[in-house]
Specification:
By secondary structure, the protein is α+β, with helices and mostly antiparallel strands. The chain contains 16 helices and eleven strands.
């Protein structure tokens, strides 16, 4: 715990992968790790009794303000009702053209890198691509190069600082003790919000666009009839940007790293794409008929869930599985440990996409797989992410081979998302006779 760069994964004891409910260390407020799918479902469904953890809220409020990503209770319900119409704008048939256009541009970029035999950061590449996709979906315009790099750099600064563990607070501070994030975190969040504000201001000049930003602009409170003010708009758009960009970038980074190590998986993907798509473009209807691509990505999400922890807090004295739980206790629901738990999965550390074949999936423990969360706050962008990743994997694997330069040095690191501890350097080679 006293290492300079503190990894939340390294704090998990072996019991985290063998016990259904276990305390984590000895702290003033208490920390309980909950792996039991039954109790996980109950906790995530009852966000009045078990709101989002106060440390988690404090970590994100400089970035997403008082948005529905961090609020609870009546405030969350009011905001959710206001932005529900925006969710309809994530209809896949509307968003798919934005996705495809972003992949068109990125394929051209990768072709140039392959010709020049350049090495590059896989983490940064996936971040730029997914940021471009979500920017086009929210604002109807691509993300410009300089802005893309600035947003990536600031997200990295944000994650590296905000994910650090304050030993004093964790061990001795009372629940809900006020705190301020480190200045580098606050500055990074301010710059990200500045970019979102600039994109919003540009978008306001085009009322004819039909996109997520437009739906948020039209949102009204059912009781007061009031719209979001400018800061409230940036709060809510920040949620869409964070959820639609950072988590997907994390998952795709692991997907292409695994493909660089497993050419057999890449060949199975190419064979399936060739059979379903042929030599033509990958269309929306095709992404729904690529079962191995989907199962491959589902297995990536199992072993490398984009959100490592779903922290909650006991809002009142309660009881969980016969244990007395006092108000303020941190409840750590960890997809990371649940997805690798010996009582929930057969050979949990083995990468095996075929475990999601219908005849095998039916034997899995219900509620043991939650890469997108669960309950009323389940990720509303799950279908969007599933189509987006199927498209990206199908197109890039069909056309390129990925090579990781130092694969033995790669290890996962838990910050806000499950990221590599250090960037993964790769190079690509364009395959001959590809569409």
């Amino acid at each position: 715990m006293w290492r300079r760069e503190k990894d939340l994964l390294s704090l998990l004891p072996d019991l985290a992968y063998r016990e259904m409910i276990t305390p984590l260390g000895y702290t003033r407020r208490g920390i309980l790790l909950v792996n039991d799918p039954l109790w996980v479902g109950r906790i995530l469904a009852d966000h009045d009794t078990f709101p989002k953890n106060d440390l988690f809220v404090e970590a994100l409020e400089d970035l997403v303000g008082n948005s529905m990503f961090v609020t609870s209770g009546d405030t969350w319900r009011r905001q959710r009702r206001m932005v529900d119409p925006a969710f309809s704008h994530m209809r896949i048939n509307r968003a798919f053209d934005f996705m495809a256009a972003a992949v068109d541009d990125y394929e051209a970029h990768l072709t140039r890198q392959a010709a020049a035999e350049e090495t590059f950061s896989l983490d940064a590449a996936m971040s730029h691509l997914t940021a471009d996709v979500i920017t086009r979906t929210i604002f109807s315009v691509p993300l410009l190069g300089d802005t893309s790099q600035d947003v990536f750099d600031d997200f990295m600064r944000f994650e590296r600082q905000v994910g650090s563990i304050d030993i004093k607070r964790l061990l001795w501070d009372k629940p809900w003790s006020p705190t301020t994030q480190p200045e580098p975190v606050r500055q990074a969040c301010a710059r990200i919000r500045m970019h979102l504000g600039a994109m919003l201001d540009t978008r306001l000049q085009h009322p004819e666009y039909d996109d997520i930003a437009g739906a948020i602009l039209e949102a009204r409170d059912a009781e007061t009839g009031q719209p979001f003010d400018r800061e409230g708009l940036i709060d809510q758009l920040g949620v869409f940007f964070l959820a639609g960009h950072e988590t997907t970038a994390s998952s795709l980074t692991w997907a292409f790293f695994i493909l660089a190590q497993r050419p057999d998986m890449a060949e199975r993907i190419r064979a399936e794409v060739a059979q379903v798509v042929g030599d033509g473009p990958v269309l929306l209807e095709h992404t729904k008929r690529l079962p191995f691509v989907r199962n491959f990505f589902r297995e990536v999400l199992r072993l490398y869930p984009p959100i490592t922890f779903l922290p909650r807090v006991a809002g009142t004295d309660t009881e969980i599985s016969g244990r007395r739980v006092k108000r303020g206790t941190m409840l750590m629901i960890a997809p990371w440990s649940m997805h690798r738990h010996v009582k929930l999965w057969e050979q949990p550390d083995r990468f095996d996409p075929d475990r999601f074949l219908p005849e095998r999936e039916s034997k899995q423990v219900p509620g043991s797989y939650l890469p997108f969360g669960a309950g009323p706050r389940i990720c509303v962008g799950a279908a969007f992410a599933t189509i987006e990743t199927a498209l990206i994997i199908a197109r890039l694997v069909r056309r390129f081979d990925f090579e990781a330069l130092e694969p033995a040095s790669v290890r996962p690191y838990a910050r806000l998302t499950t990221r590599p501890a250090k960037e993964i350097r790769v190079r690509v080679r364009e395959r001959a006779n590809t569409p």
